[in-house]
Amino acid sequence: MSIQLLETVLLMTIVTYGSRVLPFLLFKGKNVKGFARDFIELVPIALLAALVVPELITPNGTIVIVNNPFLWAGILTFLFSKFVPNLFLGILFGMSVFWGLDKLLV
Amino acid sequence: MSYKADTSNGTIEKGFTYGLSQSLTIAIGYAPVAITFGILATQFGLTFWEAGLMSLFVYAGASQFIAIEMIHQGATPLMIGVTTLILNIRHFIMSLSVVPYFPERSLPWSLGLAQGLTDETFVLNTKVLKNVEGEENRRRVMLGINLGAYATWVSFTILGGIIGKWLPIQFSGFQFALLALFIILTTSSLSKKNYLTYILAAALAVFLKLLIPGKIYLIISVVVAAGIGAWWRGKKASESVGCDSQKSI
Predict the structure, then answer these.
(1) Chain B residue closest to A75 (CA)?
(2) Between B194 and B249, where is the model more confident?
């Protein structure tokens, strides 16, 4: 295991387990409300956007639209999973379409 | 807050085995996702036991997938740590709302039950624990639920890792697998209540990625977009009092 990966797993463990265990150690229990709760609820969808969209639009560091298998495979996968809400089939679909477009658009 | 058992729901003594049997529904859901994680982790350069260790220690599905994507994109451990923190801080809220079931908990129980808390076990525990009488029993039931889910996640990750090792590496489709996964997750979590945050985060991320070197654009765009989204929700909620402004991520 590389030092980098070890550091990564260690940091991930500390922050994740920390979030889980602190209330057990410190609190009698209550509900978080208001801004903090809304913020935490919106993080996953914002992270999905930030992870995916730049990779689709700027795969090589500049904006590419037409000759871009990432973008078109992304759009098709999105549409596919709207109609077939199955994780496994969706991934298979995305990979196959990407593979095909990657061959076609070169 | 007090949680009285629902006595109309039978008087059978519920304990560890009951919890374990309840965890089966989660196990069925976890197994294919864990196998997928194992396969992708090995395709992205981890060994099967590294993937297994990540599942054992981190045990948080979404952030594990995101971590291997970020490792692949060349992000530093610190960046991945910070991203994991802002993603997994939600466990704090779930944990807060579970602890009232265990006012007399000891340190080992606290340390143990906490590790088993995920989105799925939280939902199941909240549903099941209401109907279990006595804190001692509730601890055992939660332990059963958590352990069943945890064991499934870790063992099926390793299985997926072993499968992934034997799959042909040459297939270029694999570089799109994680993006496909995230896109599918997007489809199922995008709603009228969060799509503006999504668009904002996407636009910021593209803009900042072109502007700033490195991966820091991920954290900035997420924090700014979720921050503005939350502020906007708060503003709308205070304008229309009594209207429920949250829900659905």
Answers:
(1) B183
(2) B194
Residues of A in contact with B218 (CB under 8 A): 47, 50-51
Of B95, B187, B230, Cβ closest to residue A82: B187
ipTM confidence: 0.87
Are the Cβ atoms of A24 and B177 closer than 8 angstroms? no
A 10 A CB-CB count for B16 gives: 17
- CA dist., res. A76 & res. A99, Å (int): 13
- The pLDDT of residue B18 is 95
Per residue in B88-97, pLDDT (tens digit) is 988 988 898 8
For A54, which residue in chain B has the nearest alpha carbon? B206
Query: Domain segments of chain A: what residues?
Result: 1-30, 31-104
